[in-house]
């Protein structure tokens, strides 16, 4: 399967866990968004809290919040991990 790349943006807890604010990530072509979390966790084995963070986060693709995790990533997209914001 052909490898393509996406840009992943990390904010808040996701940035803290990975130590990154952005990275280029090679993905298999036509990757469902639902599978991206597994790929990111595998890329960052030392980020022990990343799975929990991703499970509680929302995603945006090309600056549009995405609810449907069956959305297919074809390569070239900018995907942001939108962590929940706490406040009071």
From TrEMBL:
Chain segments annotated as transmembrane: none
Keywords per UniProt: Nucleotide-binding
Domain of life, per lineage: Eukaryota
One Pfam family from the record: ThiS
Matches recorded under InterPro entries: Beta-grasp_dom_sf (IPR012675), MOCS2A (IPR044672), Mopterin_synth/thiamin_S_b (IPR016155), ThiS/MoaD-like (IPR003749)
GO function terms (MF aspect): nucleotide binding
PANTHER family: MOLYBDOPTERIN SYNTHASE SULFUR CARRIER SUBUNIT (PTHR33359:SF1)
Listed name of the protein: Molybdopterin synthase small subunit MoaD
């Amino acid at each position: 399967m052909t490898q393509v790349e996406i840009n992943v943006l990390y904010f808040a807890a996701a940035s803290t866990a990975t130590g990154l604010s952005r990275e280029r990530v090679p993905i298999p072509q036509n990757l469902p968004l639902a599978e991206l979390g597994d790929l990111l966790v595998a890329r960052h084995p030392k980020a022990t809290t990343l799975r929990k963070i991703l499970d509680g986060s929302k995603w945006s693709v090309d600056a549009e919040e995405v609810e449907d995790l069956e959305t297919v990533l074809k390569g070239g997209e900018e995907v942001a991990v939108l962590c929940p914001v706490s406040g009071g």
